[in-house]
Amino acid sequence: VVSICTMDVKTNELKECFDYFDRSGTGKVSTSQLGVLVRATGQTPSNADIDDMSKEVDPNGSGNFEFSVFAAMFGRRTSSAMTPNDVIDAFKVFDQNGTGKISVADLKTVMTTFGETLSDAEFTQFLKDADPNSTGSVDYNAF
Known about the structure:
This protein is mainly alpha-helical. It is 49% helix and 8% strand.
């Protein structure tokens, strides 16, 4: 997912990302996929932010949303988003040896225990992109 959803998201790239999650081809994505979709674009919203975004893209509670609504919300919310350097600086805090890598075990502990946590299933999905070759560590400069 990360390969098609870059951190410097343009409208056509955002549409490609949206279409990836529109697996049935209806022009709509389930609100249950909103967090994964937003994070696939390189953004790092909290779970509370995702809840707010869900209400914004699906105010009637229909269970899905269209691209135009998503793109408008995304544009409003990403103007103050973290930069790629902000993300790298956050990873460096956990890179005690200065190798540019974090062990999967350490990363899992942090991401499933502290702050806005990921579930085990969410972490497993994240890990598929972060460590696609199952090396046991994440090179945060490459990721």
